[in-house]
Prior knowledge:
The protein is α+β, with helices and mostly antiparallel strands.
Amino acid sequence: xxxxxxxxxxxxxPLFELASSTPIIVxxxxxxxxIWVRKENTLNxxxxxxxxxxxxxxxxxVHATNTTDSDDTNSTIVHQAxxxxxxPINIVNKWNSNNIKVYISGLDDKGxxxxxxxxxQWVYPTTSSSTPQPVPDSVAIPLGKPNSTLxxxxxGYLISGRIWIAVGGLQFFVVSTPNGPGLVQPxxxxxxxxxxEVNYAFAELTWNSQLGIYxxxxxxxxxxxxxxxxxxxxxxxxxxxxxxxxxxxxxxCDQLKAQKKKxxxxxxxxxxxxxxxxxxxxxxxxxxxxxGQNPFGTYFAKYVDDVWNHYSTNDLTINTQxxxxxVTCRTKGDKLQCAGDNRGYAKPNNxxxxxxxxxxxxxxxxxxxxxxxxxxxxxxxxxxxxxxIPGGNVQPSLPPAKYYTADNxxxxxxxxxNWYSQLVHQIETGGRGYAFSYDDVAxxxxxxxxxxxxxxxxxxxxxxxxxx
Length: 468
Ligand SMILES: *[C@@H]1O[C@H](CO)[C@@H](O)[C@H](O)[C@H]1NC(C)=O
Ligand SMILES: *[C@@H]1O[C@H](CO)[C@@H](O)[C@H](O)[C@H]1NC(C)=O
Ligand SMILES: *[C@@H]1O[C@H](CO)[C@@H](O)[C@H](O)[C@H]1NC(C)=O
Ligand SMILES: *[C@@H]1O[C@H](CO)[C@@H](O)[C@H](O)[C@H]1NC(C)=O
Ligand SMILES: *[C@@H]1O[C@H](CO)[C@@H](O)[C@H](O)[C@H]1NC(C)=O
Ligand SMILES: *[C@@H]1O[C@H](CO)[C@@H](O)[C@H](O)[C@H]1NC(C)=O
């Protein structure tokens, strides 16, 4: 049994009952949606950095070692004591490259944009330009040769943090925004991004005094360079998420091409090649460009119609897994209406379902607790095709073994679903790791699929590059 189930962590940290659905203010205006920043490639300060009030800790060490020891429990690497806000991080190179760079970005505990400098201190990239300027600071930290471990120490708390790992270098830009500097990060969805041809990946983490650490590896945006993570807790346990094997992008691309042959939809277009025609990554369907050609056509339309028709005469129960309890939904006219919800849901289209953040799934200011609980659960149900199957009238209620199974007996009739997410979970070691943005929706008694690790008392966070 894994130790990272967010519901169990909820016992320790009641504010974080379910990561996908808790826009609860945790401190100083920090909201859950500030913690996981996925959809935009900008990370904006939420407050300005004031050099005089900075309390950033100066006890840090950043140096590569050439040890082959990657065992957390008996590491020969000596970290600074993990006192206060310092967090030891090991990056282990299991990829066959001598040219890997590590970058760490996020917001500090005051909401100011930071990156980890090569010196081991936070640097505060800044500019007065409203046109993105290259980050001037020295922020590319070389990872050692294969089988070496790079020990780093975060010199302070980090919100919306990402640990970027790249074969070669990535380009980060800073831009002036109304709240202070914004970081323009590499965007896999943008073919013109200057880092588009670089093989890279990132792990996400948030680390603060109230919550401790929450971290994950993610395929929400794409599958590329494989990463695994480990989190060693002060209580002696270690949570591990192995991620995808080394050849995951190629396997996934081949399977998506096969799916395209079966259903004629544009799954093959998710494979992204560099100028040498080499596969570089596989995008999630939520990252297809908005507007223009729609390679999925009317893919979900009939399923959505069938669902809306079914719930005009049947109850859909959404288990909010929070104070509103179970709420009953019915279609009235064109909209699905849930008891106690401040507004209803129009029929979602392909883009709405794959991204879970547009159309009926976009969250607006003033949406109430019912609405904030229904959006992730309804969107997850469409991605996993768990509506209109036995047990599907209560969401979430079915175990992971029933996700993506609708009409598997009759492949020709199989329900539309997020094939990218289904295949990513099949490829992932242990089947865990976010493959769409609400992949942490799960019945309370079932293992979650997201591969979130968490600890209120972290001792060491490890990222393994190339997990095979
Ligand atoms: C690690 O090995 C590289 C050569 O592979 C060498 O240049 C470097 O000095 C070594 N670093 C340490 C800390 O021993
Ligand atoms: C691992 O660490 C423990 C505790 O420090 C020690 O007792 C043990 O001998 C170590 N094992 C190895 C193989 O170094
Ligand atoms: C890394 O370690 C593995 C397993 O011990 C070994 O098979 C591989 O050859 C090593 N790679 C390098 C570049 O030393
Ligand atoms: C960051 O600020 C820019 C400029 O004001 C804005 O366009 C962008 O949407 C912001 N990004 C986020 C994630 O808020
Ligand atoms: C909601 O319904 C589920 C299954 O029908 C049940 O297990 C759960 O206890 C209910 N929750 C509440 C708060 O009544
Ligand atoms: C250790 O901490 C982890 C993370 O907080 C928790 O999931 C686990 O249950 C704890 N284990 C023990 C034996 O206390």
